[in-house]
Amino acid sequence: MKKIFISSTGVRSGQSLAVWCVGEMLRSQGLRVGFFKPFVTRPVSHNGRIIDKDALLMKEYFDLPEELSILCPVVPEEVPGDEVAREEQLMRIEECYEKVQKEKDALIIMGSEKIFYEPDSPYLPDGVLVNRFNAPVLLVDKFQNENMSMYSVLAIDSFLKDKVKFVFVNQIPLESVDAAYNKLVPFFQKRGTPMIFLVPQDRILTSLTVRNIVDIIQGEVLTGENRLENLVESTSISSSHLKGSLHLFRRIYNKIILLGLETDALNTPLISSKVTGILLTGGRRPAPIIVNTCGDLGIPLAVTPFDTFVTMEKIQKQQTHITYKDVYKLKRFVQLLGGDEAIQKIVTQLDEIYKF
Amino acid sequence: MTKKILVVDDDELVLIALEALLSPSGYEVTTANNGDDALEKLNKKKFDLMILDILMPGMNGFELCEKIRTLDEYKAVPIIMLTAKSGSEDKKKGMEMGANLFLPKPIAPQHLIDLIKKSLE
After folding, report:
1. Which of B9, B14, B83 to mutate to test the interface with A (most CBs of A within 10 A)?
2. Helices and strands (DSSP H and E) totals, chain A
3. A151, B109: Cβ pair inside 8 Å?
4. Do A115 and B104 touch (CB under 8 A)?
5. Spatial separation of the C-alpha atoms in residues A76 and A177, rounded to whole Å
6. What residue numbers bound the domain in which B11 lies?
7. What distance in Å separates the CA atoms of residue B68 and residue B5, rounded to the nearest whole number?
8. Which residues of B touch A154 (CB under 8 A)?
9. Dist CA A155 CA B108 (whole Å)
């Protein structure tokens, strides 16, 4: 069985998307893919129990038969445990690991959000788990600058004794892509390892859908049910985007316009914005003519009980965690990584590692 | 004036990593891959801070730290021990040998930069 440990240099690095992406890559090769995440790091209450959002995503998407409490067994205490507690955690982790690896061709092990040492971390360090599972590592690094990325990769590779085989340097601002490419790629190519992939910042990966927003603001959808997957790039309370028959909305004050980007035939975002949805705030239901106009145009229209300020605040605060419905993000991430060529490189390298 | 840092580690990866991190932050970084090499470099140039590994062939980091503290011009210069050995006994020993900070590897880049800046104040 092939194993890969996916770790991260910090929070919000795109680790969940990387895990999903690698799982899909391996599945596309006809492998039976399993998932294991020792510690709950993204907790959510589910039927009265604390479960992990990543485990839920992987279970749903890959249709995994194991219980969530097996896929992600340990809910850490807020305070780090003593030696005995840690030994107990490790025993539980190993017991569940034995179960999840059964009848699998490939197993993705997901680390906690930070591989760097933290004095009061409630999790067993990823370094300990990597050695315990003896797995090659894919490191996800949220780009800050080339030097930080270089330090992170080398310091961790040295600490893990050359176990880091792949690196995704993620969320590189467009203006830094060239510098990152010129510094990082030749350096690691010369060394031969790890295999490095640069992923630029992307608006599709960071945007929400109209459905995400409707859920956040407890909205009631009045029209455009079939377009709730429209991407929302930004929001506006200005009426300047309301053209043609949407002009009617200029007279409504309690509204928020959801804006997306026009895309061309290649699905590349163009510069101009388009209205992808309209929210009416304060709980007031609109006149039939308003509903009919949106309905005719196929634009999602939703009413929220919150006022405009609270609604905006809720949207801005929201940093959604990906769910199995966000397949478009998975596809986009694979595309940014390098598409089929990247898949082939990773799969071939994993085959090489497990050849002997 | 540019602060000078000496990094001592037998792992070339760590030396490259720390140089890549610290040089752009405005420090002049010199590297040494063992204790003898480090002592030689200390005699040639005055450093403002040192980062030492513990596990090195020949003279280990504890011994090197002890020797550095016998040199008059280095009695008060900050020494950071950066090590994969994180046990409390090692930390105690490091402090006894004259280290100012004892940090477990791998340490987050920004955290290390902040600690270096603070040590040099």
Report:
1. B14
2. 13, 15
3. yes
4. no
5. 37
6. 4-120
7. 14
8. 13-14, 16-17, 20
9. 9
DSSP at A125: P
3-state class (DSSP) for residue A265: coil
Q: State the total domains in chain B.
A: 1
Residue A233 is inside which H or E element, if any? none
Output the DSSP codes for A285-333.
PPPHHHHHHHHHHT--EEE-SS-HHHHHHHHHH--PPP-TT-HHHHHHH
For A41-95, what is each residue's pLDDT tens digit?
988 888 888 999 999 999 999 999 999 999 999 988 755 667 777 888 889 999 9
The pLDDT tens digits of the residues spanning A311-331 come to: 998 888 776 678 887 888 999
> How far is the CA of A101 from the CAs of A23, A104, A108, B81, B91, in angstroms?
14, 6, 10, 40, 39
CB contact under 8 A, A151 and B21: yes
Domains of chain A, with CATH numbers? 2-201+322-353 (3.40.50.300), 205-317 (3.40.1390.20)
Mutate to test the interface with A, among B13, B55, B112 (most CBs of A within 10 A): B13
Q: Please tell me the distance in Å from B7's CA to the nearest CA on chain A.
A: 14
Render pLDDT for A168-227 as a digit per residue (tens, 0 to 9): 999 999 999 999 999 999 998 888 889 999 999 998 888 888 998 999 899 999 999 999
Q: Please state the length of chain A.
A: 356
- Nearest C-alpha of chain B: how many angstroms from A280? 44
Q: What is the CATH number of the domain that holds B112?
A: 3.40.50.2300
> What tens digit of pLDDT does each residue of A268-277 get?
444 456 889 9
Global pTM reads: 0.84
Cβ-proximal residues to B43 (8 Å cutoff; 6+ apart), any chain: none
ipTM: 0.90
A131 touches A104 (CB < 8 A): no
User: Which stretches does DSSP call E strand in A136-230?
Assistant: 137-142, 164-172, 195-200, 208-209, 220-223
Following DSSP, what letter does each residue of B12-73 receive, concatenated?
HHHHHHHHHHHGGGT-EEEEESSHHHHHHHHHHS--SEEEE-S--SSS-HHHHHHHHHHSGG
The model's confidence at residue B29, banded by pLDDT at 50, 70 and 90, is very high
- Output phi, psi for A171, to 5 deg: 60, 45
Question: Collapsing DSSP states into helix, strand and coil, what is residue B104?
Answer: strand
The packing angle between helices A126-133 and A83-100, to 10°, is: 50
**pLDDT tens-place string over residues A89-108:** 889 999 999 999 999 999 99
